[in-house]
Amino acid sequence: MKVHSNGFVPHAKKEIINESVQFNQLAKRIGRDLSQTCAKMERLAELAKKKSLFDEKSDMDHLSRVVKEDITGLNKQIVALQEFSRRRNGGMKNQGTGHTQLVVVGLQSKLASVSKDFQSVLEISTENLKHQKSRREKFSHADHLPTSLPSSSSGSNVRSRLLEDDNQHGVPRNSSVTLDMGAMEQMRVQQQMTLQDQSDSYAQARSNAMETIEGSISELGQIFAQLASLVSEQGEMIT
Questions:
Q1: DSSP code for 148
Q2: Residue 81 domain-assigned?
């Protein structure tokens, strides 16, 4: 068996080269996916800062789900890359192990940073949801205050007085031009009920969104803690 001066037989050297190429391809793909996730995070951060009552909720919810799935998937990819690196480095007698470990640590650190940023964005969203809920409750309370419009009974009295004045001045009675205050009051009540139904639906959707965000924050906290531990572990191995 022919052995090169570096201690590797030709077949083993070729296998090591192939594994190195495979490792670099995996790391490059993870890096590309991380960059795409960072771009989504920038858009998500912009949406999270909006404090209007009716913001781009659908975009916010969609991006939150996508980024969360990205982070979970990237975490699994990095763990798989780390396992691949360990198996590969096991037969290399520490040759090149420092480079692969640095690559893994770099990816873990970047993902940990993205996870932390995402967690902060979700916390901002939670605060905005609480603020919007408080505003909605104030508006809802204001809607139940007495209005300046007369009730249906007083509306009938007003209509009667108007008709009496018309009769005194010789104005013919015409139902098409009569001010029906009772109908106006009924219309106002119907509008209030419609707005209340819409407000209740919106509040329920916001409540569900808040629960989802809080659950995501908890999961991200676990991922971040895991990544921080792995980064620390890899750092100690390198040094």
A1: S
A2: yes
CATH code of the domain covering residue 46: 1.20.58.70
Distances (CA, A) of 154 to 145, 162, 186: 18, 12, 13
What is the C-alpha separation between 147 and 142, in angstroms, rounded?
10
Encode pLDDT of 172-185 as tens digits.
555 444 445 566 66
Whether 85 contacts 9, CB under 8 Å: no
Tell me if 154 sits within 8 A of 185, measured CB to CB.
Answer: no
> How far is CA 16 from each of CA 5, 80, 238, rounded to the nearest angstrom?
16, 18, 21
pLDDT at 109: 87
Round the CA-based radius of gyration of the chain to a whole number and report it: 33
Report the number of distinct structural domains present in the chain: 1
Q: Which tens digits make up the pLDDT trace of 141-152?
A: 655 555 444 444
Give domain status of residue 168, yes or no: yes
pTM for the full predicted model: 0.59
Task: Count CB-CB contacts under 10 A for residue 169.
Answer: 7
State how far the alpha carbon of 222 is from the alpha carbons of 212, 215, 218, 238, in Å: 16, 11, 7, 24
CB 111 within 8 A of CB 78: yes
User: Per-residue pLDDT tens for 92-113?
Assistant: 555 556 788 888 888 888 888 8
pLDDT average, residue stretch 40-60: 72
